[in-house]
Write a structure and sequence with these properties.
It is a single chain. The chain is an alpha+beta fold and 199 residues long. The protein folds into 2 domains: 141 residues, Bifunctional nuclease domain, CATH 3.10.690.10; 49 residues, no CATH class. The chain has 7 helices and 10 strands. The chain has an 8-stranded mixed β-sheet with strand order 6-5-4-7-1-2-3-8. Strand 2 and strand 3 form a beta hairpin. Helix 1 packs parallel to helix 3 and helix 2 packs across helix 3. The longest helix is centred in the C-terminal third of the chain and has 14 residues. The radius of gyration is 18 Å and the shape is globular. About 10% of the residues have low confidence.
Length: 199
Amino acid sequence: MKKIQLEILGLSSSQSQTGSFALVLGERDGNRRLPIIIGMFEAQSIAIQIEKINPNRPLTHDLFKSFAEQVNVSITEVLISDLKEGVFYSKIMCTDGEKEFELDARPSDAIAIGLRFGVPIYTVESVLSEAGIILSDLEEEEEESEETATVKSTSSGSSAKEPLHQTSVDELNKMLNEALEKEDYEKAAKIRDELNKRN
């Protein structure tokens, strides 16, 4: 079985399912993309790891990593192994130094855990050929989502939405602190990116 390495290209709100997110994986040495619809909690967990944001309290995937380290188990890779009736299946490949074993997992959980261990993500040709999409379709969707990305302004209690690039640095810092307190890490990452652009 030939494995194909993937990398995370993006994470955006799903246009087809409310409250869900599209995690887009790309073929490392090719042009195919693999979008996977995931839940809000898993999307948040993946986003804070990608953005290197430290939550106030450990999330479930952080807890899994701490537990695995305490019992001397390490993760070697994540494999998106199958696609049946529109549902993706994956495995977390583990070792305790003497024997190797695998754990069945949802791809969103497997990827969130894999990111914390810094291991590669793979799939197989059958999955990529069945569910892969062309890059040009993806670029149009990303442009649309970037144009509509706005955050509520907190100045003077206004509920009007205001694009981040039109918000003052002081206001952005205040919004960042509020987002972190509410554990809204996706919003915090967007605000932090806007602040970084200005520095």
